[in-house]
Amino acid sequence: MEFFSNRIGAKYRMLFLYLLISFMSIKVWAGNRISEPLRIATYTYGNNTRMENLRPLADLIEKRFGTKVELTSYNDINDLVTAITQGKVDISFISTMGNLVLNNGKHKHAMEAVLTMEVPQNASVKYRTAFVVPRESDIVSLKDISHLKGIRLALVSPESTSGNLIPRFVLEKMGISSVGSFFGNISYAGSHRSALEHVLDGHADMAAFGSSEYTEYVKKNGNNSKIRLVQLSDPIPLGPVLFNGSLDKDFQQKLKQLLTSLHIEYPLVFSKITQGWIEAIGAEKFIAIDPDYYETYIDSKDR
Questions:
Q1: Angle between helices 51-65 and 249-260 (to 10 degrees)
Q2: What single string gives the DSSP state of each residue in 204-254?
Q3: Within its chain, how far is the Cα of 209 from the centroid?
Q4: What is the pLDDT of residues 191-248, one digit of tens each?
Q5: Range list for CATH 3.40.190.10 in the chain
């Protein structure tokens, strides 16, 4: 009888141990998951949803990791930020400004900035802000506006990096601590091209927007240009790739390795991604970044 009792006891102990291990495995999996489907999200600018630009990467991830990928392009940065705070996003391609909005202390989320695209220091084309005025304007440089309080400024949109965040950052470094009260009127044109046209149409005394729009305008109009460049900002860091911290850590590491070697192993996939963001012209690869990579610009976004 004692023999059978020991066998039954051992059997129950083994069953208990099995259930305990299973429970612990479920807990670990719940805390470090590979989402099914893996939800990759970005935002739409104008008519550009970037879906076609991210599809080759999504297909590659499905093939490499055997997990289904769901691509979503939200209407704008604010909608993307909302989706992130609602836990609907695992991987996000977001702008610099969008990342700062997400981390302004008002949003609870689990996303971490882990990668960005790098443009080499000697690249001829870099992501910058262009400050322009009408050709006949008395403003020769930004320093000239210090005694012209009340002039009209055209920006792109509150969510724009090169058309709002960086202009404010540059002006603050010049000593204009409150951009909102210095200018007689600040209008958001809605797009980089529209901000430029505000100057052409006489609706603004100065405009600030992505430098690529200025470059395209000058190429097209040459000596007939009706605007004049007064300053270019320093190169602007490109927006990050965000990972949801709840994703399986091993998966995150492997995905980082895939993205940082993408320009070598899958150059066409990398090139397709860069084509989705005009500011990424000249980008050569993804690089890993520290959590404080964008700290310099945090105080400028709300002024």
A1: 120
A2: -SEEEEEHHHHHHHHHHHGGG--EEEEEEPPPPPPPEEEEETTB-HHHHHH
A3: 17
A4: 999 999 999 999 999 999 999 899 999 999 988 899 999 999 998 889 999 999 999 9
A5: 38-119+237-302, 129-232
Residues whose CB is less than 8 angstroms from the CB of residue 215 and which lie 6 or more positions away in sequence, other chains included:
none
Selection from 243, 241, 234 nearest residue 95 by Cα:
241
Q: Please, what is the Cα angle at 60 between 57 and 66, to 5 degrees? A: 130
For β-strands 129-134 and 69-74, DSSP reports them as unpaired
Q: pLDDT (tens digit, 9 = 90+) per residue, 238-254?
A: 999 999 999 999 999 99
- Which are the contacts of 144, defined by CB distance < 8 A and separation ≥ 6? 138, 230
CA angle 132, 43, 154 (to 5 degrees): 20
Of 182, 162, 185, the residue nearest 174 (C-alpha): 182
Domain 129-232 coded CATH 3.40.190.10: yes
Q: Distance between CA atoms of 99 and 241, rounded to whole angstroms? A: 9
Among candidate residues 57, 93, 55, the one with its CA nearest the CA of residue 74: 93
Task: Tell me if 243 sits within 8 A of 111, measured CB to CB.
Answer: yes
Return the higher-pLDDT residue of 40 and 23.
40
Spatial strand order in the sheet of 227-232: 185-188, 152-155, 206-210, 129-134, 227-232
Query: What is the CATH architecture assignment of 38-119+237-302?
Result: 3-Layer(aba) Sandwich (3.40)
